[in-house]
Amino acid sequence: MHNLLPVVLNSILAATAAISVLLVASIVLLHLRHQSREGRRERFLSEWRPLFAEYIKGSKPALPALQAEDVPTFCGLLNYWHNTMRGEALNGIKEIGNAVGIDDIALNLLRAGSLSNRLLGVVVLGNLQESRAWDELTADVSSANPIVSLTAARAVLQVDPSRGIDVVLPYCGSRSDWPLAGVASMLQMAGPTLVSDPLASQCLSSDRPHVIRFIRLLSCAQRSVAEATGRTILKTATDPEVIAACLRQMNDVGDHDIICGYWDHPEWYVRLQAVKALARVSRGEDTPLFIRRLKDESWWVKFRAAEALAAIPSFDLFKWEQIAGKFVEPDLRRVLLQATETRRSKLG
Amino acid sequence: MDNSHNGPVKKSVFIVEDDEEISFVLSFMLEREGYEVTISKDGRDALNLIDSAPETDMSAHPDLVLLDIMLPHFDGIQVLTYIRNHPTWKRVPVVMLTAKSQAANINEAFALGANEYITKPFQPDEVLVRIKRFLN
Fold first, then answer.
1. For domain A70-159, is the CATH number 1.25.40?
2. How far is the C-alpha of B105 from the C-alpha of A132, rounded, in Å?
3. Is the pLDDT of residue A39 over 80?
């Protein structure tokens, strides 16, 4: 037994040493591989950036062949420059893409690539407005993967905005896994002229829960359409969440009385949106209404009412305290004072 | 930045932009047009460069600054404030670069003395036209 112990210990030590050497060797290899990739990427960028710049200036120098290993870097560069620029420059970016055959490469990525390559293909095809990809892209809009579906939806709107809006818009309400900010950014890219009427139709014809998402997206529509749609829905709406979503769209002084109709609504988030909406449209004669809301049971409603009061140029906290003969809650008083001071300093 | 050499004087542009692709495009376009370009990648680097210019040499400044608003360390508004209080740089035209979503910052930039602004995404030719108004 005693003779066996050193042998076992030696074996353990040898195994540990071997594993350590293997680990170190793996780390070194990974590091070298990473360095080699980075070096290749840097060389590629230093060669291709000037070529991209030439193309967006309208000249078309000869291009080197695009190697398979450089396709992801090329696609990344193309997508980044596409997002950075607008107008005529985008034509140059499409031209350099087509000149190296990235449209065909991206189609292959879309059809047979891994998830990351497929996403890369979708973004490139959208930026190139490649109509050959229409069927695959519209099919991907219904993908269960929210990243694939939202990326495909954006690409569909880039390829053919007029046809694409009818494909994409229904999903904007039903896909609760699409972040609303991402959807809004996509609809803003399509533009309010294209989006306004179909979005208003969806708002007026959809039921809960989709209708709430659609109403919140009205900020991407033309202001007149958004406000008119909100007014129409409010005429019959009883669902507090729908009412709150509509109040978010109210920006017109003509909606003053509609907003005030929800001033004492039993749900705090409706009162909150009413306070915020009135703050946007108020002409300064609503001080008593905001003061009333300083006694709201919800802290957020009180906070927004305090902010709204402080934004009214004629409001004077100290004078109001004298008239009212009492102080507002200390934390709200701080809000009022701070907001009043900020306003004064902005006015100089 | 020192233009006090002999021969034809190249107008100089100082770009403060942390986005490598954007600063590349802008410098490529400007150098193609014959301008001398210096680039800083963040606010601290920009302030260091401004401070490195001798205060007694009134020509030791660029002819124009292209200044991004969102920058690491010191933002564009802080760099602009510094420029406007600097003895030799204070009259240099400053063109702000800003994302559409930061448009609210533009009012502040104008109040602090910015001369022009360009929103990203941008059209390179349009940038050149706007810049040339201050350089020619």
1. no
2. 42
3. yes
